[in-house]
Structure prediction request, 102 residues.
Amino acid sequence: MINAGGLERLGFVNHQDFILQDDGDGVYIRWISNKSQPTEGEISTSSTVWQSEYDAQEYARNRATAYASTGDQLDMQYWDSVNDTTTWKDHIASVKDQFPKV
Prediction:
């Protein structure tokens, strides 16, 4: 599968150096830069590394959407200090338990 991440990891810019295009027969790279186009092997290797790095950060993307907003977290911290509770710590621990760092 072709993705822009591999090319971007090699230092190329989408819509400046290349465009991923699909005319109905699948995605392909349309090269629009004056720079030398990398080989298929270079793109493939870079794409594999990029995909691995992206996959390794899935937990972080999941946590970011599961955490309460900053304002809500500050409110939890305030009320925890007033009521001597652990609502905020419990919330953070729950999200970290749900989406562990791998």
User: Anything to note?
Assistant: The CA atoms of residues 72 and 88 lie 9 Å apart. The chain has two domains: 4-56, 59-98. The first helix runs from residue 4 to 9. Residues 59-98 form one domain.
